[in-house]
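Input record (one chain):
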Amino acid sequence: MKRTIGLGSVFLIGIFLLACAGKPAEQIAFPTTCNAGDDGKYVKITGYLNDDGSVFCSNIGGGRMDCSFSFNEKADGGAKIGAEIEQGSGANEIEEFGSSYKKEDLKIHDNSGGMVKVGDKLNLTGKYEALPDGSHCFLEVDKIEK
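The corresponding structure, as predicted from the sequence alone:
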């Protein structure tokens, strides 16, 4: 038996993909505390990417392979949240690196495919996640802009 997809189904799938691709992010001030009320929001935050001396990559739950960074309010520290950047070789991704890396070895691509470095001031856009008790929060990064 042969299955086909109707024109109506293709149209609906196209509308869904366009809606997701053009999702507007809410620019928010750097979160100085983790607010569980912001959990699940799609946001844009300005800050400084930091590796805190090591970067751990995993795909817990079988999802995308993410590498964990700190994202700081100020160049010299201040408030911080986690920033999960997907591993890959395209825009908004970090290339795979060895276990004994130097900061210079980290190849992070911004939204236009250009390179950014640990320590750069960046705008990160993505889904904000906060634990219910407010003890930890992070951003699942979709977009990296200088």
